Amino acid sequence: MAAPSTLRIVIPGGSGQIGQILARHFHAKGHTVRILARHVRPGPWWTTLWDGRQMGSWAKELDGADLVVNLAGSTVNSRYTKGNRKAIKESRVRTTELIGQAIAKASRPPALWINASTATIYRHSLDRPMDEATGEIGGNEPKIPSSWRFSIDVATSWERAFFDARTPATRRIAIRSSMVLSPDKGGVFDVLSKLVRRGLGGTAGPGNQFFSWIDDLDFVQAIEYLIANDKLEGPINVCSPNPIPNREFMRALRKAWGIPIGLPTASWMLAVGAVLMRTETELVLKSRRVVPGRLLKEGFEFNHPDWPSAAQDLVRRWRERQSKS
Questions:
Q1: pLDDT digit string (tens) for 50-92?
Q2: Which domains does the chain carry?
Q3: Which one of 22, 213, 225, 281 has the minimum C-beta count within 10 Å?
Q4: Which residue, among 276, 252, 257, 245, has the nearest Cα to 194 in the 3D structure?
């Protein structure tokens, strides 16, 4: 992307954890950041309100922007009731369609549109890694839970809406992102760390299911890399090159915190706990063995390609933030 030194960046759905990570990063680098959100959240950037359902005055924010990063979508950390399923799917597909329409009407469309997708699009995989070239899209496996099939339907519908958009002047990338781990309060790393510090951070379920992850620093560097490389477009896995089985992941996290033991959680316990916490066991039990084939092929270098070193660094940064608060 032959971009000016200062970019005008619009982030629909930028009030969530990933949006805030990117907004902080881009703002610190001197770029102009605009967030589209349902509610205003404090930050050193402009927020434009939108409902994510219909065209409105928010569309003018995309006209003349250099980059659009769409992260909009209702949380998947909920029970997959009929109402929640509808909200999860429609909030992703509809917002993507709207952004495509706004870009198509823009007099100066953005050079690059990055749209969120998910590593969950691939099948449950214990046998081999899933990259963009050889990875198998899930949904047709026999006897998989309906919640897993639903998540794949959301992912494929989301990407279909994205690539069906008629925006010939705009390069498009769907980031099939894994879990992004950061020291932010309320994020995945924070939640898992609380379990570890309470002695509950043992193996979840069988423990052989793979966990695909990326730390926040490598995530933002990967986004920067995608911005800078004009030839990259289409679906791109944004994750560490080394997914790790759950039992090893939790062991390394316990070691980083200096916690010697963690109580394991059987699959049936996770099912009960998911009901009580109003979430789904898929987030823990589905094996996501996803690798960043295209990023590696292009020569992208990870600062923390392995989980043990990333865990140590995340714990260190978490403690630094706590000491300053």
A1: 999 999 999 999 999 999 999 999 888 777 889 989 999 999 9
A2: 8-182+212-243+289-304 (3.40.50.720)
A3: 225
A4: 257
CB 116 within 8 A of CB 172: no
Residues in the chain: 325
According to the model, what pLDDT value does residue 77 have?
74
| 36 DSSP assignment | E
Give the pTM: 0.94
Can you give the pLDDT at residue 13? 94
Among the residues of 131-245, which ranges form H helices? 146-164, 188-197, 216-228
Classify burial at 305, counting beta carbons within 10 Å of its beta carbon; exposed 0-12, middle 13-18, buried 19 or more.
middle
What does the pLDDT read at residue 4? 53
φ/ψ bin of 174: left (φ > 0), alpha (ψ from -120 to 50), beta (otherwise): beta
- For position 78, what pLDDT does the model report? 73
DSSP letter (8 states) at residue 123:
P
Amino acid letter, residue 73: G
Which pair of tokens denotes residue 203? 């193996």
Measured distance CA(137)–CA(157) in Å, rounded:
12
